[in-house]
Model the fold of this input.
Amino acid sequence: MEYIFSDRVGNLKPSAIREIFKYAADPEVISLSAGNPSPDAFPSKEIAEISADVLKKNPISCLQYSITEGYAPLRARLKTYMKSKYGIGTENDDLLITSGAQQIMDLASKSLINEGDVVICEAPSFIGSLNTFRSYNCRLRGVEIESDGINISELEKALSEEKNVKFIYTIPNFQNPSGVTMSLEKRKAVYELAKRYGVLIIEDNPYGDLRYVGDDIPAIKSFDTEGIVIYAGSFSKTIAPGLRVAFTVAPAPVFQKMVVCKQGQDVHTNIWAQIMVDEFMARYDYEQHLEKLRRIYSKKAAYMTHLLDQNLPPQVSYNKIEGGLFTVCTLPDYVDMPQFCRELINRKVCVVPGNAFLADENEVCHNFRINFSTPTDDQLRRGIEILGALAKEVVR
Amino acid sequence: MEYIFSDRVGNLKPSAIREIFKYAADPEVISLSAGNPSPDAFPSKEIAEISADVLKKNPISCLQYSITEGYAPLRARLKTYMKSKYGIGTENDDLLITSGAQQIMDLASKSLINEGDVVICEAPSFIGSLNTFRSYNCRLRGVEIESDGINISELEKALSEEKNVKFIYTIPNFQNPSGVTMSLEKRKAVYELAKRYGVLIIEDNPYGDLRYVGDDIPAIKSFDTEGIVIYAGSFSKTIAPGLRVAFTVAPAPVFQKMVVCKQGQDVHTNIWAQIMVDEFMARYDYEQHLEKLRRIYSKKAAYMTHLLDQNLPPQVSYNKIEGGLFTVCTLPDYVDMPQFCRELINRKVCVVPGNAFLADENEVCHNFRINFSTPTDDQLRRGIEILGALAKEVVR
Done:
């Protein structure tokens, strides 16, 4: 049998990160490559309690078919929560529960992208989202990210040059991979540009609740009076990723198309998991839980910062960690970054080469991403020591 | 803001069944329209036990990120089970865990269908699958279903007439909506035709384990030496649909594309649910569980048959129930079926008009689907009495 695949997947490759994860799975390798939340951060005891209680009192609610839009009590709770805490959601928006935020990217792409359309993304940006956009045969246009977020004049240039831009994809808080947070001024500028050019924005915010220093900055969605922002929230980093529960607050016409696409994709999100999230927020102090996560991760972030300062030669820079789970280290231009990452693997340390996160993976790139949430403190120390030693060998 | 949607979803409507479910949600309405398994059939106690145990002993396994292909122990278990029980799976196949069988339809469509390709389906067929195929801009060609399955000479005609047929979609056991089972001879003929014309087959088998009379017939996939059959199995009817756990046994090259598409769609299926299925099969006697389901449903099927025989006038026929959850009733040609269904809703009984299941929903159609797994015995009795009374008013 000769298999003839669709044009959209013919050239689609498994993500480069997956290849790296193969090495990372070796127990002898110290992985700084994952994006997994720390198991310490999971409310395991609380989930076990809620699950036991619900499966005893009302098992059918966890086991029967449910509706595509999501578990009604959770939708209502999140609408209220997002409005009161973040000023997100208007009467022109609606809220859809999804199977992880990855599904939001797929449903939005499926609803919006025709072959040859353009998606503007930050460069670098989250590889999982970029691959989903690619799978709908769009062209990605990367716009460089600066220390305070996307380069606004480059964004305007991209909007004026490109036809058929469908949306701008941004991760404004503690961006993956860069760790960068977009300033308030830039958020307003991105919104105004999107409005002027009549394009949508996907605002992906998995890490917003994980700020360790400084003050929260309002979401772009909170300015959205025109119905141009599709906001993606997730419980993967704040409760547990295995649940696969996320949500989008989107303009009602976009929401409606996403619901129809989701119906054909998985009918509805696992209902036990939706109930777990709803009951967790109902029975426990969610703000206190977030505070606990910030304590766990800010300690890890501080330790990582300390290790990087101690071990990296001055020629290797890294982005200051204000929140989230990652930072990016940048090597001098004369160092071959892919070769550096390969040599690190030989020395049993695994990081993610920065070109994995570019709109064009073949572009020359000098940085790599490191994660501090998954490794133990001991692994972090040994990993950064090995990384620092290699860096000292290659810089001049 | 003017929203411009992709061509693929511009004309996509919410499924006609959803409209009907609005009426069915009215507690005064007796719904014969659902496809929900009976809550009596859920192993609620066992799931509660397993969940409590796993969330106590190894909560992180239920909460952390997992791999796209599926929970490794469940994949291994299902490979062995499908091979030993049904002769399904060769060294050229692989097995992917999905978020319901609906996702298999989406992943296969995304991997295979280019705009303008043709999908051959039984007419009538499951609306959820047809809508997913439509969402990838293919054209559906329906081939009539007879009392022993798809019309083989019409299928051959379709294959010889249509260019760019990507796959044949079939539900060989207790087909939704018709309840019809395909004979062994026809299964072999469908396989040979697909092989001759170089097209794939999607064999969707959610109801295969729910046979109440007669002997099991081998799956088309069990003849598959050439790697042309994508088999879809599901736990929605045999354990619980809220879990959203299904699996496909597919030729390895197709499996690989589906994995890449799934990675971009939901990363992986809810891991707690995968563990529930794996542990349920490990700790309990799964064959005895299936036997229990068949006892519950065959009793309901027998009661439904009794009620139809007692209440329907001879001019209204129905398909004999051998398994599954549905049957189809056919009105005489001179009765306006949509009008009949609307009048039933006025009398507080809800069924699904047969045209919802056609490749072309506007085709004239004289049948409707009724379900016997969801209503209580009392609801069934009252529902079929009302249906029978109306039928007697309209026949001549």
Q: What stands out?
A: The mean pLDDT of chain B is 95. The radius of gyration of chain B is 21 Å.
